[in-house]
Design a protein that fits this description.
The protein has 203 residues and is α/β, with parallel strands linked by helices. The protein has 8 helices and 5 strands; from the N terminus they run βαβαααβαβααβα. A 5-stranded parallel sheet has the order 2-3-1-4-5. The longest helix is centred in the last third of the chain and has 23 residues. The chain is globular, with a radius of gyration of 17 Å. It starts with a strand and ends with a helix. 33% of the residues are buried. About 8% of the residues have low confidence.
């Protein structure tokens, strides 16, 4: 059975970077936005809409079809929503069956529970998360501290809601993870190295 590492993370905590660095150190495949792209291709929905579903919730008047035809979500909304979840689950299983890998987000810790993944949750204090957002994303540079703090809290709220919808579990609850990491204490690069050394002895 493949070795699977899943990364749940607070927004701005560096979970995506940690996952990528872990994959590099361990020689594992790394999956994040590639999953959204694959779902969009399989469902013929726009990546923007798929991302909206997977990170937030369906928006009623949002264009969803790619190509020449554009429609809005009407009575078929739930059917399309369910199809996205079904495709996500199928893709995650295919990835898990293919090779050792690190998967960021997508409720992979719960969806792949039969594979007994090593489940990591990444968090940090608000000050470090705000600092990281300003360093990593130009879109946040123009935000005031208040606006950025509210944005971070809003993204976390959506992630918690989506995770709870899919799993009936509490997002970020330490009982649902094998390792919780505070990235405000050390650089993500150093943390990734230490965790990789530990994981090399896993199983």
């Amino acid at each position: 059975m493949s070795r699977i590492i899943t990364i749940g993370r607070e927004f701005g905590s560096g979970g995506r970077e940690l996952g990528r660095r872990l994959a590099e150190e361990l020689g594992y495949a790394y999956y994040d936005q590639e999953i959204v792209t694959e779902i969009a291709q399989r469902t013929a929905l726009s990546e923007a809409y798929v991302r909206q579903i997977l990170e937030h919730k369906p928006v009623t008047a949002f264009p969803i079809r790619i190509g020449r035809t554009f429609t809005t979500v009407v009575n078929s909304q739930q059917e399309q929503w369910n199809d996205i979840f079904k495709q996500q689950y199928q893709i995650l299983r295919e990835l898990a069956d293919t090779a050792d890998c690190v998967i960021v987000g997508r409720c992979a810790d719960w969806m792949l529970r039969a594979y007994q993944p090593f489940r990591i949750f990444v968090y940090a204090d608000m000050e470090h998360r705000m600092q990281r957002c300003r360093q990593k994303g130009a879109e946040h540079e123009a935000m005031t501290d208040k606006e950025l703090r509210q944005h971070i809290q809003e993204v976390d709220k959506h992630r918690a809601s989506y995770y709870g919808y899919c799993t009936d579990q509490k997002w970020g609850d330490k009982a649902n993870y094998d390792l919780c990491i505070n990235t405000g204490l050390e650089s993500v690069k150093e943390i990734a190295h230490h965790v990789a050394q530990y994981l090399k002895a896993w199983r």
